Amino acid sequence: MANEKYLLNDVDFFDIRNRNEARVIKIIKKVMETPPYYQPSEKDLYDIYALALNSLPARYAQQGTIVLRDPVRDKEIEEAVRKAFAIVVENPKI
Questions:
Q1: pTM higher than 0.90, yes or no?
Q2: CA separation (Å) from 83 to 32, 52, 53, 89?
Q3: Which residues, 6+ apart, have CB-to-CB distance to 23 below 8 Å?
Q4: How many helices (H) and strands (E) does the chain have?
Q5: d(Cα 24, Cα 49) in Å, to the nearest integer?
Q6: For residue 71, how far is the Cα from the chain centroid?
Q7: Angstrom distance (rounded) from CA 87 to CA 17
Q8: Per-residue pLDDT tens for 19-73?
Q9: For the chain, how long is the longest CA-to-CA vector?
Q10: C-alpha torsion 36→37→38→43, nearest 10
Q11: How many angstroms separate the CA atoms of 78 and 4, rounded?
């Protein structure tokens, strides 16, 4: 059974996702593979991921949804990811 907090009566909302989630992860990987090859900690990666997603418009869709046009371009996602990296690097966790 799906996570209880995503259930409303018998309706399961668990598979509704922000379409930018996978795209942000892909761009984070790309950024980490370019100089200076910064390798953030797990906690820093979570922060970068959340900061980048929060700076982009949400694009929620359910499984099997047909997407005709995606208004958020990869360039915008990369800018959000690079900005999130900068914020995390400039504000290290103690």
A1: no
A2: 13, 8, 11, 10
A3: 72, 74, 77
A4: 3, 4
A5: 7
A6: 16
A7: 25
A8: 899 999 999 999 999 888 888 999 999 999 999 999 999 888 887 777 667 788 9
A9: 50
A10: 160
A11: 34
